[in-house]
Amino acid sequence: MNRDVINKCWNVFGLQKTEIRGIGVLNGSKKIVSxxxxxxxNLITELERYEADSMQWYFVFNGVNPYNLEAKMCNNxxxxxxxxxxHSISDxxxxxxxxxxxxxxxxxxxxxxxSDEELALANKVSECIYQFLSNNGFPRPVLAMSGxxxxxxxxxxxxxxxxxxxxxxxxxxxxxxxxxxxxxxxDTVVHNRAxxxxxxxxxxxxxxxxxxxxxxxxxxxxxxxxxxxxxFRLVKAVVDKYMIKExxxxxxxxxxxxxxxxxxxxxVHGVGYKKRDVKGGYKYVLNECVFNxxxxxxxxxxxxxxxxxxxxxxxxxxxxxxxxxxxxxRLEGVKIQKPVGDSKAxxxxxxxxxxxxxxxxxxxxxxxxxxxxxxxxxxxxxxxxNCLNGGxxxxxxxxxxxSNGCGKTVWLNNMILxxxxxxxxxxxxxxxxxxxxxxxxxxxxxxxxxxxxxxxNDLIDKSLEDKLFxxxxxxxxxxxxxxxxxxxxxxxxKAHLIVLDNLAxxxxxxxxxxxxxxxxxxxxxxxxxxxxxxxxxxxVAHPRKSYGIVRKEDISGxxxxxxxxxxxxxxxxxxxxxxxxxxxxWKKSDVEFYSxxxxxxxxxxxxxxGEERLIGLFYESYSKRLKCDYAEIIxxxxxxxxxxxxx
Length: 647
Ligand SMILES: [Zn+2]
Fold this sequence. Notes:
Layout: H1 3-13, E1 20-26, E2 29-35, H2 40-49, E3 56-60, E4 63-64, H3 66-75, E5 83-84, E6 94-106, H4 116-135, E7 142-145, E8 150-159, H5 162-179, E9 184-186, E10 196-198, E11 203-204, E12 216-217, E13 219-222, H6 232-242, E14 251-252, E15 258-259, H7 262-268, E16 273-278, E17 281-286, E18 300-305, E19 310-314, H8 324-331, E20 376-377, H9 382-387, E21 392-393, E22 397-402, H10 408-421, E23 426-430, H11 435-447, H12 454-463, E24 468-470, H13 479-492, E25 497-501, H14 515-533, E26 536-540, H15 561-564, E27 567-573, H16 576-581, H17 588-594, E28 599-606, E29 613-620, E30 625-627, H18 637-641
Parallel strand pairs: 22-26, 22-27, 23-24, 23-25, 25-26
Antiparallel strand pairs: 1-2, 1-3, 2-5, 3-10, 4-6, 6-8, 6-9, 7-8, 7-13, 11-12, 14-15, 16-17, 17-18, 18-19, 20-21, 27-28, 28-29, 29-30
Helix pairs in contact: 5-6
Bound molecules: zinc ion.
C-alpha cells in the first residue's frame, strides 16, 4: 500500500463522496466490506487493519446520490469503518457520470497478476488510445496502473440516462475494436453506472505473488494540471465514425435479423483477412488496406459489432478519413471523394504520453511574469483602476453583486462604455434586457449633454461599431450556445472583456446535478476559460438577501463562487438603509464620509493586491453617468473625433 498515492486518489476522485469497497477471501470464504470515509486519514487507518489479508480495494467512481450514500452507509454502520453490507451502492444510486473509464488489460490466465512484459504491452496500448482520443478532441485523462493493466480515466459530467449509458457502452466497444490485439484487450463491460475501479495506492493481490507475476501497488501515473470534462458530443462523434448501421445491403440470417454479411462481402471482392474474436464483436484484420496495398496487416480492419453495426479503420495518416462508407464504396467501385476533416491525422503507434510535469517546482522552474506585462482593461473609475493595478486583468474573473436597484447595470454600462472608448472590445450578454433597451442606455450615457438626435446617435453607434458586441437576446439564455458564440467573438474579434448579466438568468443546464454544483462548475469553467484565452470576464450574481448591507458571503448560489473569482465587487446605493446599517461594518467616521456619495463600489476581494475598500461615486441622473468627482466632466472620443462642440 502506498499512502501518498491513496492521498492523491482521494483528492482527484473525490473519495469523500463515494463508497469504498473491499472484496476478498477472509478465513476461507468470500467477503465483501464497504465504508464511507470522512477523511483520507480514517481510510488509511482502516486499510492498515486489513493489510495482511487478501482483500482488494475499489471505489465507485461515478457521482453517487449523497442521500442514498448516507442512508445506506449509516444503516450498515459503515461510516469510517469497513463492515459487511447487504446494501452497497448500486446503479440506481448513481446521479451522474463523473468518469469514463477505459480499462486496458493484458490477456492472461484468469486470477493471476500480469508479467512485466504483459504490463508493458498494455501500457503501449494505453498510449495509442490516449493519442487517438486527443486527436479526436478529448482533454487529457488521468492515467493509472491498476496492478496488472492500465486505466485511462476521462473526467466528464453528464446526467445518467439511457442515452448516456448506451453511448458509453458503444464507445468502449469501438475502442475495443480499434485497439485490442491478441495480447491486450479493452474491457467493454465497465460501462455500468455503479462500476468500481481500483483504489489506487492499494496493492493488487491476484493469484500468488511470484517474481514472474508479482503483486504490485496500483499507482496514479499522471494527473493533468487542469482536469477538463469530456464534451459528450466528442464521445458520440467517435461512435458515429466507427460504428455504422448499414441499411443499404441487407439479408436475413438464421434468426431472421437483417444483417450485412461482411464475410461474404469481403470474399466476393477478393479481400484477404484474418477473423479475430474481440470483446464487442469480430474484427476482420485485412491482409492489405484497400486504399493502399502498402498498408499491410494488422494496420487496417473491418469491424462487425455484436448488434450488426459496422466500421472500418486503417491506422495510416493517409487513410485517416476513410470509414465504413468509403471502404464499401471503394470495393463496389463507386467513385469516392476523399472526405475533408480529420485534419489532425495522427502519427500511428509512435506516440508518447505528455511528459509528466514536476509536482514540486523550484523557483527557477517557474516562468516569471511581470504584473505590468499583463493587460489591464481600465474601467476609467480612477481609484478603482489604481487599486486593481490598472483595471480588470486579462485572465481574470470578477463577480459583481449588489442588492436590487443598487445600480449594477448603471455601473456596468458606464464601465463598458469607458473601456470601449479606450479601444477595448467587449461582448455583453444581458439576460434581462431587450436589445433595444440596451441600445438606449448606451446612447443616453454616451450622449451626455449632447442633443438626442438621430445624427448624434448614429455617430455613437459608429464609434462603437467594432468595439461593443451585444449578444442577440433572440438566441436565448442557453449557456452552451452562448459559450460557443463567446469563443467565436474572442477568436474572431479578439474581444478583451466579456460581461455576463446575470447568473440567475443563465440556463446552465449541466444536466440534473444539484443547482449549486452546476453554478460552481459553471464559474469554474468561466475562470478557466478566462485564463486560457487571456480575457477578463465579469459575471453579475445577485445576493441572497434583499435588505441590509450586502456582503461577499451573501452572493446567491454555491458558497464557493466568490472563492473562484479573482475580484468580487459589491455595489451599494447610499440611501437611508445604507446609512443606518453601514455602522455595523465600517467606522462611524468612514460611514459619514461615504454618505456624501451617491453610490459606492466596494472591492470585497482582489487576488492581486488584496486591498479591500470602498470607493465613492457620483451619479448624474440625466446622463446616467457615474463619476469619480462631482464636478468631473466626461467626454467620449466620438465627440472629439467628430468635432462636436463640447458641452
Ligand atoms: Zn490504409
